[in-house]
Amino acid sequence: MSDTLSSRMLVNTLGIPGILLMIWLGGLWFTMFTTVVMLLAIREFYQINSTQGSAPMLWLGLIVTLGIAMMYYNSGGLADNLLVISIIGFVLVGMVIELFRDKPNPTRNIAITLLGISYIPILLGTLISLRQLDTFHNSHLTFGLFISIWMCDSAAYLIGKKWGRKKIFKRISPKKTVVGCVAGFIGAGVVFSVMIATKVLGNQFGWVDVAMFTVISGIFGQMGDFAESLIKRDVGVKDSGSFLRGHGGVLDRFDSLFFASPLTFVYVQLFF
Predict the structure, then answer these.
(1) What is the 3 state secondary structure string of 27-42?
(2) Residues near 106 by beta carbon (within 8 Å), at least 6 away in sequence
(3) Residue 40, CA distances (Å) to 17, 105, 210 in order
(4) How many angstroms separate the Cα of 246 from the Cα of each of 4, 11, 241, 252?
(5) pLDDT tens per residue, the chain (272 residues)?
(6) Alpha-carbon distances, residue 74 vs 27, 117, 189, 198, 251 (angstroms)
(7) Backbone phi, then psi, for 236, in 5-degree steps?
(8) Which among 73, 214, 203 has a CA at the least distance from the CA of 139?
(9) Taking a C-beta distance cutoff of 8 angstroms, is the pair 251, 227 a contact?
(10) If DSSP codes are grouped into helix, strand and coil, which group holds residue 198?
């Protein structure tokens, strides 16, 4: 057995039960877990975007990430006015700091810093509020979201590797196939179908909701994967980092949730 495969198996054996435990505990435990993930992810994002002469403001991104996590935890979501005020503050602080840094490519530095904040804590932080909604509704949607994403990734990889021929985004992710993506979509649907049929997902959800959650995890989740691949290809790296041996970086493991989590959160907020 190769070292890479052994490392992947070790990470899966320890990581998956650990994540499920954090979801089950909820509250402050899940908030702390999500915050750590976001801090590691934004650090990786700034590191890979520092390879072309840019110098994003890492410490500002870390501080803002902590602040956004606290806002999600305390308010159950970012209120409209608070979000607008926060964005204005991020832009102004970032531009003022850049005045005194004396670094090359100031426009790119500011843009990457603000993109990292928008892409990581604002999007992924919705997991914190989504888990709080589960407590309020007595549902298990956060469990379903994670498991459906894992099933989607696994089905897309295994089926695509064996039967996939036609590439879906060759310029971005040359190994991903149409067959694999369809298999991933079906895998996500199976997870939510089983959860609704066994009444695990939550009594307030129906088959229409299952269809929507399947679209979010099975289509938009994969779009999140492609979006992260686009960023990596732009800066010329294969993995976002090496924090998770055999899996790459934290961004590589949670990329699908950057799209799936906020869309799921918005859907539940609008219709429940």
Answers:
(1) HHHHHHHHHHHHHHHH
(2) 98
(3) 20, 24, 32
(4) 5, 8, 11, 11
(5) 454 444 455 556 667 889 999 999 999 999 999 999 999 999 999 999 987 778 999 999 999 999 999 989 987 666 555 666 676 777 778 778 888 887 888 888 889 999 999 999 999 999 999 999 999 999 999 999 999 999 999 999 899 888 888 888 788 888 889 999 999 999 999 999 999 999 999 999 999 999 999 999 999 999 999 999 888 888 888 888 766 555 678 998 899 999 999 999 999 988 98
(6) 11, 19, 32, 32, 25
(7) 75, 40
(8) 203
(9) no
(10) coil
Structure-block tokens of residue 207: 């088959």
Judged by DSSP in three states, 239 sits in coil
d(CA 221, CA 147): 12
For residues 94, 100, 101 and 103, what is the CA-based torsion angle, rounded to 10 degrees?
A: 100
Contact by Cβ (8 Å): 94, 57: yes
SS3 91: helix
Site of tokens 């310029």: 171
